[in-house]
Design a protein that fits this description.
elongated; 12 helices; 23% strand; binds zinc ion; eight-stranded mixed beta sheet
Length: 498
């Protein structure tokens, strides 16, 4: 026997087995099956229809008691024999076509209740033209793959100029298949502009704060979803393998794993994974755009809209330890969650601490001192049916009301100036009884010298410092209930004549 022949036979056999295995798994799941009236216990943990964000290879969605899943003919018949109300919605050898039918609906195109990025920008720009005193467009960066502009919109009582007011940020679509987030932000944007002067509550928010909105962070990915190419697309459009072809699932980088706070602890280092974090922190231009925005404006509070789960994640649980502001973060998350009704109308959103790594809220809170919340809107899918979208938006606008109520305090409104010149200073503001080494030191805004900080009423130690100046220490500073407690600190330059 030719000694070369045996390995060749073994190799051929192995290839046949591999082909057989692959053939048994994927191509045979050619059915999109709908199952109705699924009992609650089958939807619970360990049940047959236990949906999560990461098992969408088979179970595509489960909204209320109706699921859609990919199945083989045998699996479909098995469901019927087990007594489930299962019907075939579509049969196709193209798995992408089945996903389109499941997520877009019978037209296989994005339902018009959702907007493309061009439509979102056109609508917002129209408001900028009509109300330049109320809303301004602020380019914050470009996308990683196609260099499309990423826009923030600034809304205030005079949007033509940066304001010395607490900042609040709302963003959508770090994950591009979670498109309802962009719709919530766009709806809020229109409400803030159009209801100013008509609705006393909205007027008060806009007078009191400077509000930034980023309807879509992951613009390239959003385009893949909204153009009808692929409704599953979650990551950005980066051509990770450099083959010149983009938009081939599951390429791209998870933009919500790219922030530089415990970056290596978050997501996956494997490019084919849903939560691939990229090659290094801030490798993705979408993350750099958000970082740039934080350089333009510090924020008191912010929200990132995602789907799904009807839960608010706040920073953080880190090996069982809460964040330095854990009690207050949980309290605010609870206030907001308690106002957002679930899709079934039976309850309100839950709250949970998230992990401490690489996601927006960990970076915003840990590095930038922003009380940030991820709101997972809706339940059981990422692309909600058109009839469910207005309800999800309306419910989340109630959450916005609860969040905005926090922009009056309680807490500290620190204002730091140079004692010699009276000019505002960028200075470090440290509350050593609260802020341990897990978080970066917080600072006042350079242009205005202000820093607003949420606190529960009580007594605090505050240390204000800046190189070249004498450090100011405030012992047992009383923070009142109700509105902001003002703290004026004028720092003496070191070596200055007294
Ligand atoms: Zn998400």
């Amino acid at each position: 026997m030719n000694p070369l022949r045996l390995p060749r036979i073994v190799l051929l056999l192995a290839m046949t087995l591999l082909a057989g295995a692959a053939g048994a798994a994927d191509p045979a799941r050619t059915l999109l099956v709908e199952v109705r009236d699924i009992p609650a216990k089958e939807q619970a943990k360990g049940g047959r229809f236990d949906y999560s964000d990461y098992n969408r290879g088979a179970l595509l969605s489960i909204v209320r008691s109706t699921a859609q899943l990919l199945a083989t003919r045998a699996e479909f018949e098995g469901l019927q024999h087990a007594g489930f109300h299962a019907t075939v919605l579509m049969e196709s050898p193209e798995v992408l076509t089945l996903y389109k039918r499941a997520y877009y609906g019978p037209t296989l195109k994005l339902p018009p209740v959702y907007h493309s990025y061009d439509q979102i920008v056109a609508r917002a720009d129209e408001l900028v033209r009509e109300h330049p005193e109320r809303i301004a467009r602020v380019p914050i960066g470009e996308t990683t793959q196609f260099h499309r502009p990423i826009y923030a919109y600034r809304i205030s009582s005079d949007a033509r100029h940066p304001q010395d007011k607490p900042g609040v940020l709302f963003d959508g679509c770090h994950h591009s298949d979670e498109v309802v987030g962009a719709e919530i932000v766009l709806t809020l944007l229109q409400k803030l502009v159009l209801d100013y002067g008509r609705d006393p509550e909205v007027t008060a928010w806009v007078d009191r704060c400077e509000i930034y909105l980023v309807p879509v962070v992951n613009v390239d990915g959003h385009d893949i979803v909204t153009s009808g190419r692929d409704p599953r697309w979650r990551k950005n459009a980066r051509d990770v393998n450099g083959d010149g072809v983009t938009g081939v699932f599951p390429e791209g980088v998870d933009v919500n794993r790219g922030y530089d706070f415990n970056w290596a602890m978050g997501g996956s280092d494997r490019p084919e994974k849903d939560n691939y974090r990229g090659q290094y922190p801030f490798s993705e231009a979408e993350n750099r755009a958000m970082r740039h925005l934080l350089e333009l404006k510090p924020f008191l509070l912010s929200v990132s809209y995602h789907s799904q789960g009807e839960v608010i994640y706040y920073p953080w649980s880190w090996g069982g330890q809460g964040a330095p502001d854990d009690a207050l973060l949980r309290e605010i998350a609870g206030e907001v969650a308690g106002k957002i009704r679930t899709m079934d109308g039976q309850a309100t959103y839950a709250v949970s601490p998230g992990g401490p790594s690489s996601q927006s809220y960990a970076w915003l809170y840990g590095r930038k001192g922003v009380f940030d919340f991820i709101i997972e809107t809706g339940k059981g899918t990422h692309l909600f049916a058109p009839e469910d979208v207005p309800g999800i938006i309306a419910a989340n606008l109630e959450g916005v009301r609860a969040l905005m109520a926090r922009t009056t305090g309680p807490g500290l409104a620190v204002h730091v100036t140079d004692a010699a010149t009276g000019r505002p200073l960028a200075a470090q503001v440290w509350l050593p009884r609260i802020e341990n080494e897990t978080v970066d030191r917080r600072t006042t805004e350079a242009a205005f010298g202000h820093y607003w900080r949420q606190l529960r009423p009580g007594n605090y130690e505050v240390i204000i410092s800046r190189p070249g100046y004498q450090t100011a220490v405030f012992h047992d500073l009383a923070v009142a209930a109700g509105n902001w407690t003002k703290l004026e600190a004028s720092l003496q330059p070191e070596g200055a004549a007294r």
